[in-house]
C-alpha cells in the first residue's frame, strides 16, 4: 500500500513523505488514527498544492516547540522520597511524577515524550530527555533528595 504521511510517524517517516507500507499496518493502525492517507493520483496533487501552507504551519510549530524546549531546559524538578537507614529509597520517581511537576509549571507533555528507561530509584541529580518532536528535544534536571522524618 502506498501512502502519504499526514503527520510524523516514528520509525516510518516525516509529514509529507510518500511511503510503501504493508497493507495491514496501514489499514489497521495508520489510517484509523489519521496518520496517513492513501497515495492516489488526486491525493498526490492536492498534497502538492497545499505544501506551502503546510510548510508555514510546520515552521510555526517548530518555533513554538524550540521555545518550549528552552523553557524546559531552564527547569529543575525536585523530589523528596523516604529513605531507609541503609540508604535504600522507598518508592521512585516515575514519568507520571515528572508530568505532574511539569504541569504545575504550565508545561504539558505526554508520557511518550519522556525518555526515561526506568523509574529513578536512587537519591541524586539526573538529566532526563524530553523529545518534543523527532528533531527537537530538551533535558530537564531532576534532583531526588532523602525525605526527613
Detailed description of the structure:
The protein is α+β, with helices and mostly antiparallel strands and 149 residues long. It has two domains: 2-49, Ribosomal protein L9, N-terminal domain (Ribosomal Protein L9, domain 1, 3-Layer(aba) Sandwich), CATH 3.40.5.10; 68-146, Ribosomal Protein L9, domain 2. It is 34% helix and 26% strand. It has four helices and seven strands. The chain has helices spanning 23-30, 41-49, 51-73, 95-104; strands spanning 2-5, 18-20, 36-38, 76-81, 114-115, 124-133, 136-146. Strands 4-7-6-5 form a four-stranded mixed beta sheet. Strand 5 (114-115) and strand 6 (124-133) form a beta hairpin. The protein is elongated, with a radius of gyration of 21 Å. The mean pLDDT is 90.
Order of helices and strands: EEHEHHEHEEE
Q: Tell me the CATH topology of the largest domain.
A: Ribosomal Protein L9, domain 2
Report strand order across the widest sheet. 4-7-6-5
Number of strands: 7
What is the helix tally? 4
Which ranges are low-confidence, i.e. pLDDT below 50, for 5 or more consecutive residues? Answer: none
Estimate nothing, just give the exact number of structural domains: 2
Mean pLDDT: 90
Amino acid at each position: 500500500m502506498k501512502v502519504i504521511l499526514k503527520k510524523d510517524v516514528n520509525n516510518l517517516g516525516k509529514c509529507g513523505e510518500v511511503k510503501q507500507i504493508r497493507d495491514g499496518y496501514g489499514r489497521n493502525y495508520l489510517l484509523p488514527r489519521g496518520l496517513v492517507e492513501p497515495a492516489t493520483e488526486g491525493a498526490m496533487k492536492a498534497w502538492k498544492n497545499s505544501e506551502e501552507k503546510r510548510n508555514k504551519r510546520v515552521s510555526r510549530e517548530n518555533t513554538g516547540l524550540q521555545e518550549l524546549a528552552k523553557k524546559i531546559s531552564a527547569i529543575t524538578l525536585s523530589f523528596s522520597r523516604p529513605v531507609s537507614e541503609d540508604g535504600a529509597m522507598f518508592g521512585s520517581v516515575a514519568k507520571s511524577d515528572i508530568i505532574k511537576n511539569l504541569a504545575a509549571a504550565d508545561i504539558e507533555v505526554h508520557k511518550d515524550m519522556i525518555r526515561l528507561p526506568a523509574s529513578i530509584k536512587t537519591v541524586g541529580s539526573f538529566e532526563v530527555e524530553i523529545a518534543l518532536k523527532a528533531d527537537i528535544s530538551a533535558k530537564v534536571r531532576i534532583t531526588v533528595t532523602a525525605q526527613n522524618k
